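Appendix B. One record, verbatim.
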Amino acid sequence: MTATAAHLLEVTDATFAEEVLRSDIPVLVDFTAEWCPPCRMVAPVLGRLAEERAGALKVVSLDVDRNPETQAAYGVLSMPTLVLFRGGEPARSVVGAQPKRRLVEQLGLDEAP
């Protein structure tokens, strides 16, 4: 796993279970691709979210081109797709780039777990 922003980690098919499914805190997974312009637009928003909620929320990215197993396992067809995992299970998802306030609202990040 490598840091793609200050608090944003890159996960792979090999590290997904450990970093996401077994995490003690909620994990927001950004299913992304290098060729995706909206993905580049949402990356700074996710970096800020990761920094602001460090310790309470883990934000990671997964390149779908290099990690097709995880993409297929969760039926991700459009990029970016953001999936919030709680207790190892997908809880909510958002497709497409959104402003930070809207992402927080749609993913229920201000709600109690």
